């Protein structure tokens, strides 16, 4: 970096690196230069004229958002001339603005409102009739009210540069100018809704939130998105116990402001009419609603009886439940019920990766590494579809640092638009094809390799060997499917491995083997839907299901216990990069209990002593016993992410790789949760076929 | 969609004028020449240009919306544009425009029933020194009087 330069802003000395914009230089000393069109991280526009500042020896006011700071520059950001200019700009911006703030969604959190309050164009000299355009619906998610639009281009830039879709443009000119969607009258895009969030006024509004609430009437819960494994922070806006909006305007969490359609709109499964709100017990062949005490007693009675006669249990855990719940469940299974048959739907071979990296440190990439690495290699995953945030990180890295991205996939992927090199191969040939890139990869300073379920078992070890042979620092990400897929493995929901990938006392059955076993006495399925694809072999198996919905599995159960979703509980989850983050309870759905509470009550009913079942207490135990989870509490308590590697040493048995397969979700599907999200099903791009924006 | 061999040749040559990777620059001339042949900015035309120049559809929409010379409505065989901006207005541009409306029996951005003429009131044509000015297709006419306008229109009618 060039030598820092010194300039004076409002009488204060500011030292910034050369090339810094005046607006950013001012920020470093706590001076806010107001701007509508300027948006950190995106291309410069200088469209709104709100950031005009006075610079000594410059004849006219200068836009602070495009003016690079120069040595000895003297800037005034609040001089009478500047204030007058801003007042004029506002008067102009308001000349056609409908001023319908009392009913506008943005009222109370509107940048135009704030600026008008501050620089106060209390009256207007315009006498002309305001130009009115009716509002338009572009998609179930996005509405546009042209009259409110101040043409700042923010939405256009985040869509084009940030998401890489470019579904928005600006057509016509003068008073008729307005934002236009990709297909004339409607949008075909990722439906991520970022355009709505960045809109400084109420021109773009959200299909789920519009005209429902005032921003100060809601409670906000910053939690982690419960769909894919990327672990984006999403802040739920909750009114009267109902989630009506999700966004991340405070840019907390690993994802900053980024969210995909699932994070921003996919929360509506929480309030689906099909949520289970009462336990169900099979009586005379039918599932009938019963009280919690009756249902728990029935489960405990059967569990106790089977345990007493040394019967055969099978337990399938979830990829959406918290680390605490997963830890408690495996403890319940191993200590409480004395069974080794515990597994979950495995979608990536993390144990093999950790084993291959045995003894090495700093080899697991964080999500921030994807933004900072010089190069990245994506193997066997359509990242933009399956890991929208990781894809966003790579795209931002390319945009800001010209990172070289390589892809090795069986089909066309969106990363190819900017990739340094893209190779297509037959499924199963990914490893060999990736190895052919060795000479290209060696050129770069460092590398992150991301691989999907195509690389598993022995192939993971070969991939790591290949990576380590390149002679440059390489980090790895083993892609897994769901919000806590990684946590399920770290917490020992594996037939052969306990928490922290320690060898389990005994090796049990894998998920597929449990389903195929005809002699299971009890099958306990927590937040998973295995019967959707595989019919169970056991005909007399007593099946207990904890879920949000009456899934294919729950329909065949003997007892169904209504569980709370991740948005309704506290706890921690671990994302695909091994980053532990905190869940915070937003809404509460009547009649449900968190899985942890259900485990605790069942343990009590059975007379088992498995410890206190509050998430904080269980997390304390995890921190004590699982290596790497001793993460700094202040970091996660304040909404940050702490990376962990649950093992650093050989993994005794990495399990059967043949049972590892990704569910292959896309941008608009998300397993069971996605099926019950109206918004994910209403958008025309659903059900998630690859579309070409 | 395909264009006439002459137009294809023109496009092929035009694209050579731009440095590699910047073929996008040919967008406006390409749209304009294509419009002359096709008659208007049809959806098929947009699709074709979008494909050839690797430009997003919405970017073309932006250009069409901005430039009045590109139109979605088919025009007449001859497009008459009359300036009513300051210099022309002071020297009779308004009257000239009104006269043209009466003469052709149509209003702004309309087309005669026989499809021969369309009319448009435009801003500055860059000919203030010779106001009032007008354009018929790509031909420029200055110091226009209502009589001169009548003559031009009649002669065009005859050549049909």
Automatic annotation (TrEMBL), chain A:
Gene Ontology molecular function: any one: quinone binding
By what name is this protein known? NADH-quinone oxidoreductase subunit NuoG
Q: Outline the extent of the 2Fe-2S ferredoxin-type domain.
A: 3-81
What protein family does this chain belong to?
Belongs to the complex I 75 kDa subunit family.
Cofactor dependency: [4Fe-4S] cluster; [2Fe-2S] cluster
Query: So which domain of life are we looking at?
Result: Bacteria
Give a yes or no for keyword Zinc in this entry. no
The protein's UniProt keywords, in alphabetical order, are: 2Fe-2S, 4Fe-4S, Iron, Iron-sulfur, Metal-binding, NAD, Oxidoreductase, Quinone, Repeat, Translocase
* 4Fe-4S ferredoxin-type domain boundaries: 140-163, 179-209
| Enzyme category, top tier | oxidoreductase
Ranges where the 4Fe-4S His(Cys)3-ligated-type domain occurs? 81-120
Reply yes or no: does the keyword Iron apply: yes
From TrEMBL, chain B:
Q: Which InterPro entries match?
A: NuoE-like, NuoE_dom, NuoE_N, Thioredoxin-like_sf
**Cofactor(s) the protein needs:** [2Fe-2S] cluster
The organism sits in which domain of life? Bacteria
**Keywords (A to Z) from UniProt:** 2Fe-2S, Iron, Iron-sulfur, Metal-binding
Q: Cofactor note, please?
A: Binds 1 [2Fe-2S] cluster.
The UniProt family comment states: Belongs to the complex I 24 kDa subunit family.
Query: What name does UniProt use for this protein?
Result: NAD(P)H-dependent oxidoreductase subunit E
**Species whose genome carries this gene:** Paludibaculum fermentans
